[in-house]
Amino acid sequence: MANALFLALALLAQDGQTSQGPNAPPTDEYGYVAWCYGALGGYANLYDRVMPEVTRIEKAFPGPDGVAASLKTYPEMRTQAQKDLKTFASAITAAEKASPRPISEYGGAQVKRGAAIWQGADSVDKARLAQMWMSWSPPGDCEKRAKALEMKSSILGKALNYNAGSATTQAPQAPPQTPTPVAEAAAPAPESVAPPKPEPAKAVAPAKPAAAPKPAPAPAQTAPAKTVKAETKPAPAPAAKKLPPIGGNEIIVDPVNPVPCAGSLVPAKRGGRDVLICKKD
Questions:
Q1: Tens digits of pLDDT across the chain (281 residues)
Q2: Cβ-count burial of 24 within 10 angstroms (0-12 exposed, 13-18 middle, 19+ buried)?
Q3: CA–CA separation, 12 and 206 (whole Å)
Q4: Are 244 and 252 in contact (CB under 8 A)?
Q5: Per-domain boundaries in the chain
Q6: What pLDDT score does 102 carry?
Q7: Which residues pair with 277 in a beta bridge?
Q8: pTM for this model (two decimals)
Q9: What is residue 3's predicted lDDT score, i.e. its pLDDT?
Q10: Is the separation of the CB atoms in 68 and 128 below 8 Å?
Q11: SS in 3 state form for the chain?
């Protein structure tokens, strides 16, 4: 039973086909790429185990180009698998960083489901395992969906960072200054002044009363200069974001100036730039 399940899952996962069993890949992009990562990782992990039997089969049934040419392809396939795994991992990481909620637990479950297509490797015959391994390849759209996922996540991540920054980069207001108490401000600074010494009185002959001198004109009082405070005009409020132009039935969202989307954002290129197309769900 285990062998039949293993063979069915492995066969249905070849050439882009997917099974409808419990280990079938999910339909969402993030989960699908995580599933591809698990399935391809299980394939790469079997390399050292199956190569002795693969070599025996290639020698027993040489291809038109000879045994050496056939055996040369397997190390190249392993190298390509390692590159694809890095591509998948980069897309998965970008999606997890851009997601507003934690999704890594769900992604880890899909990686395990992908790796589970090789769960019968320990119980199946080594010749049969080698044959299945030689003919298996990941679904053809794994790489394409991984690159699309990473580009979309990168654009969404920039938009999220832009929104977060616009709410926190406002100039901080100066803290209010504590007013000085009026009594302290009005009190003059104390000065140490020595009291004048009284002079001895002198006998003075009475003099004729003289005409009273005319009082000197009072000096003109100069009005204190007023301190003119420069009025600081408030910074103009940022212009309200306008909905990007609509071309045909497309709503184009610029990641540098994002706007809400009542639907799903699909990455695309318009005018040589990376943009998002807002599509209704």
A1: 455 445 445 544 454 444 567 788 999 999 999 999 999 999 999 999 999 999 999 999 888 888 898 899 999 999 999 999 999 999 999 999 999 899 999 999 999 999 999 988 988 999 999 999 999 999 999 999 999 999 999 888 776 554 443 333 333 344 444 444 434 444 444 444 444 454 544 444 444 545 555 555 554 554 444 544 545 555 554 544 444 554 556 777 777 777 677 667 777 777 777 777 777 76
A2: middle
A3: 139
A4: yes
A5: 2-166, 246-279
A6: 92
A7: 252, 266
A8: 0.56
A9: 53
A10: no
A11: CHHHHHHHHHHHCHHHCCCCCCCCCCCCHHHHHHHHHHHHHHHHHCHHHHHHHHHHHHHHCCCCCCHHHHHHHHHHHHHHHHHHHHHHHHHHHHHHHHCCCCCHHHHHHHHHHHHHHHCCCCCCCHHHHHHHHHHCCCCCCHHHHHHHHHHHHHHHHHHHHHHHHHCCCCCCCCCCCCCCCHHHHHCCCCCCCCCCCCCCCCCCCCCCCCCCCCCCCCCCCCCCCCCCCCCCCCCCCCCCCCCCCEECCEEEECCCCCCCCCCEEEEEEECCEEEEEEECC
**Beta-strand relationship, 264-270 and 246-247:** unpaired
> CB–CB of 146/88 below 8 Å?
yes
Residues across the chain: 281
Rounded to 5 degrees, what are φ and ψ at 93? -65, -40
Q: Tell me how many degrees the CA angle 183-188-191 measures, rounded to the nearest 5.
A: 145
Torsion of CA 56, 59, 65, 69, to 10 degrees: 50
- Do 275 and 252 contact (CB within 8 A), yes or no? yes
Residues in CB range of 102: below 8 A, 6 or more apart = 96
What is the C-alpha separation between 5 and 21, in angstroms, rounded? 9
